[in-house]
Design a protein that fits this description.
Strand content: 15-25%
Distance between the termini: 50 Å
Shape: globular
Number of domains: 3
Number of strands: 22
CATH topology of the largest domain: Rossmann fold
Number of helices: 17
Structural class: alpha/beta
Radius of gyration: 25 Å
CATH class of the largest domain: Alpha Beta
């Protein structure tokens, strides 16, 4: 059976699971699912490599649901993930997939009181999704047993078997019955993963789809040299020109991300931060707000680099470099999900040259690199003619009043069911559209050496250039005919 002919029904998937997939709006297997599911449903051990956003969760989730004996209340499937957020995400997919069969899915991770998790295990959960530290704690306390486990999955296996997690993962795997099916899934499979797999997997099948994750994804990745080292101003420039999609900004340390989030929030940007010092409840709230679109800009450490599936992320910005090329691949994989267009931008300061060269060598390819000339050039770098993107006016800096409250923030308006920022309008100037000749008003003093367009001509011009696949930056509500000035790249 060819990949093009593959269907879930042709893979001996039960009627209940097929119905659950239909309710989830899923009718056709992705390439990694089409390649991996037959072997997994046959009970084979497997190493699966595919880019992020390619459907790996269902590739191991469907076999997990299929093999669970619903009459037995002990743990039959264990899925290990490197982060709490990924555990919650995977657990949600498995719950939805197994709801019709009455399969109980439990979560085990730190940041939450252990008591309720212990009670969940006593009541009987057939599938456990958790992080290594908390899972190992319950194993050592005798609250969790893996002697009857049928399937063990390591999601994001390259990080699970890296130096930070490897000892805990090894201990957990040694406590699981050897008569089990073991599956490793990841976007990258470095040598140390294969060496560990040799010790714990029985004659595994290797399935590789899109072996160069970044190249296969529809992601434009460009590095920019910020000559003066002022990455924060470059970042603000990018955020001022962001479109309707969400943005993830990656930093390196918890303290640095928290500090940057406070600064941007103080300047009026709609941001939230996700980093390890937050309580689990706070992390859950941040992810809920980001998934819903209520917070369009997420500042994060590498805790957000792994496996998080938020389809509306249009752009990833690296303000600080990651420690490895694998992390760089995972970071930029947060955009371009499930075939959608995405953009990744890495900002390089004067001191980043050596580290960036090391990352490129590990990647095995060169990333396009250019001097930083502003967001207009960066966001429209592939255009064949000068950019017509219009800037989203920068939020005014807040000012403290005598009552201690903050004033001067952009006002919010309701559009499309979510909060959006709008900004005060400047003094209007009357201009003549360079395309149709009609009169329009713009909230800035135009440069007479550059073309300027009315709103209709701007939209038509941009749609022709982008093929209708890229939405222009949200503009302020001017209240009258609006013009857009064309700028040099």
């Amino acid at each position: 059976m060819t990949e093009a002919d593959a269907s879930f029904a042709s893979m001996r998937v039960s009627a209940d699971t097929l119905a659950a997939l239909a309710r989830m709006g899923i009718d056709t297997p992705t390439p990694i699912q089409a390649e991996a599911l037959p072997a997994l449903l046959d009970g084979r051990d497997l190493i699966g490599q595919a880019r992020t956003g390619s459907g790996k969760t269902l590739a191991f989730g469907i076999p997990a649901i299929e093999l669970v004996e619903t009459r037995q209340r002990h743990v039959q499937v264990l899925v290990l993930t490197p982060t709490r957020e990924l555990a919650v995400q995977v657990g949600g997919v498995l719950e939805e997939l197994g709801a019709a069969k009455g399969i109980k899915v439990g979560l085990l991770f730190g940041g939450r009181a252990p008591g309720p998790q212990r009670e969940m295990l006593k009541r009987g959960a057939q599938i456990i999704v958790g992080t290594p530290g908390r899972v190992l704690d319950f194993l050592q306390q005798g609250a969790l047993w893996l002697d009857k486990i049928r399937l063990l999955v390591l999601d994001e296996a390259d990080e699970m078997l890296d130096f930070g997690f490897a000892p805990d993962v090894e201990r957990i795997m040694s406590r699981a019955t050897p008569d089990r099916q073991t599956v490793l899934f990841s976007a990258t499979v470095p040598d140390w993963v294969r060496k560990t797999a040799d010790r714990h997997l029985d004659r595994p099948i290797t399935v590789t789809v899109d072996p160069n994750p970044e190249d296969a994804a529809p992601i434009e990745h460009i590095a920019y040299d910020v000559a003066d080292g002022n990455k924060i101003e470059a970042l603000k420039d990018l955020l001022d020109h962001r479109g309707d999609g969400s943005v993830i900004v990656f930093g390196r340390t918890k303290h640095g991300v928290r500090k940057l989030a406070r600064k941007l929030a103080g300047d009026g940007y709609p941001v939230a931060d996700l980093q390890g010092n937050l309580s689990q409840n706070a992390r859950d709230r941040v992810m809920a707000d980001f998934r819903s679109g209520d917070v369009p800009i997420l500042l994060a450490t590498n805790v957000a680099a792994r496996g998080l599936d938020v389809t509306h992320v249009a752009q990833v910005i690296n303000v600080e470099l990651p420690e490895s090329s694998q992390l760089l691949t995972h970071r930029i994989g947060r955009t371009g999900r499930m075939g959608r267009q995405g953009q990744a931008i890495t900002l390089l300061g004067p001191d980043d040259g050596k580290k960036w060269r090391q990352l490129e060598r590990s990647l095995g390819r060169r990333v396009p690199r250019a001097p930083w000339r502003g967001a207009i050039a960066a966001l429209d770098s592939e255009a064949e003619e000068p950019s017509t993107l219009v800037a989203r006016p920068r939020p005014p800096a807040p000012a403290s009043t005598s009552e201690g409250t903050v004033s001067g923030r952009p006002r919010r308006s309701r559009r499309g069911g979510r909060d959006r920022l709008s900004a005060p309008v400047g003094q209007p100037h009357r201009v003549q559209c360079s395309a149709c000749g009609q009169t329009a008003e713009v909230p800035f003093e135009p440069d007479p050496t550059r073309p300027v367009y009315c709103a209709d001509c701007y939209r038509q011009k941009h749609a022709r250039r982008s093929g209708g696949t890229r939405r222009p930056v949200t503009r302020p509500d001017y209240g009258q005919a609006a013009g857009f000035v064309e700028r040099d790249q």
